[in-house]
From TrEMBL:
<protein>
    <submittedName>
        <fullName>RNA polymerase sigma factor SigY</fullName>
    </submittedName>
</protein>
<keyword id="KW-0804">Transcription</keyword>
<dbReference type="GO" id="GO:0006352">
    <property type="term" value="P:DNA-templated transcription initiation"/>
</dbReference>
<dbReference type="InterPro" id="IPR014284">
    <property type="entry name" value="RNA_pol_sigma-70_dom"/>
</dbReference>
<feature type="domain" description="RNA polymerase sigma-70 region 2">
    <location>
        <begin position="22"/>
        <end position="87"/>
    </location>
</feature>
<dbReference type="InterPro" id="IPR039425">
    <property type="entry name" value="RNA_pol_sigma-70-like"/>
</dbReference>
<dbReference type="Pfam" id="PF04542">
    <property type="entry name" value="Sigma70_r2"/>
</dbReference>
<dbReference type="GO" id="GO:0003677">
    <property type="term" value="F:DNA binding"/>
</dbReference>
<dbReference type="InterPro" id="IPR013325">
    <property type="entry name" value="RNA_pol_sigma_r2"/>
</dbReference>
<dbReference type="InterPro" id="IPR036388">
    <property type="entry name" value="WH-like_DNA-bd_sf"/>
</dbReference>
<keyword id="KW-0731">Sigma factor</keyword>
<comment type="similarity">
    <text>Belongs to the sigma-70 factor family. ECF subfamily.</text>
</comment>
<dbReference type="InterPro" id="IPR013324">
    <property type="entry name" value="RNA_pol_sigma_r3/r4-like"/>
</dbReference>
<dbReference type="InterPro" id="IPR007627">
    <property type="entry name" value="RNA_pol_sigma70_r2"/>
</dbReference>
<dbReference type="Pfam" id="PF08281">
    <property type="entry name" value="Sigma70_r4_2"/>
</dbReference>
<dbReference type="GO" id="GO:0016987">
    <property type="term" value="F:sigma factor activity"/>
</dbReference>
<dbReference type="InterPro" id="IPR013249">
    <property type="entry name" value="RNA_pol_sigma70_r4_t2"/>
</dbReference>
Length: 176
């Protein structure tokens, strides 16, 4: 049975098809949220919230985007809502602690950890999210604007300014 058939069955109320869909997308969603949050514990919590929201809203999935994109949209909005609610922008010490957790987690999975990821981890989430969605996951500006529920011009501006900031930080002499 292919993914589209499982989606259709899940929409009709087949819990086993829905469970299989969620199981198939769990790792993808977890890796995305680790990159977004820079905190494996928080990423795990958001994956669980995303899965619950998917279970609640599966009947509203209309198939206009890939199922994985729909999940990323849910996860992204949950993360943004959480950040807005708490009005928390992690400061240097919290980022360092989260970075150590992520580095440990990534080493456990034997994944490469680059200077670019270190630089991304120091950025505000509002800048980091569109850069990751555009340049790591390959989404179009329009898709990112929809996922983040912000104007497309804001997406372009955040990506441009964020990349300028990354270039400046990653250049040996500190110039862009």
């Amino acid at each position: 049975m292919d993914e589209q058939q499982r989606i259709e069955q899940a929409i009709r109320g087949d819990n086993q098809a829905l469970a299989q869909l969620l199981h198939e997308h769990y790792t993808f969603l977890m890796k995305y949220l680790i990159k977004v949050t820079m905190n494996p514990t928080l990423a795990e919590d958001l994956v669980q919230e995303t899965m619950l929201k998917c279970i609640e809203k599966i009947s509203s999935y209309n198939g206009t985007s890939k199922f994985s994109s729909w999940l990323i949209t849910i996860a992204t909005r949950l993360y943004i809502d959480m950040m807005r609610r708490k009005k928390v922008e992690q400061r240097w010490q919290e980022q360092e602690q989260a970075l150590r957790k992520v580095q440990w987690h990534m080493q456990q999975q034997q994944e490469a950890w680059t200077d670019a990821i270190d630089a991304l981890s120091k950025m505000r989430y509002e800048i980091r999210l569109p850069i990751l969605l555009k340049h790591y996951y390959g989404y179009a500006y329009e898709d990112i604007a929809e996922m983040m529920d912000i104007p497309i011009g804001t997406v372009k501006s955040r990506i441009y300014n964020g990349l300028q900031q990354l270039r400046k930080e990653l250049m040996p002499d500190g110039t862009a």
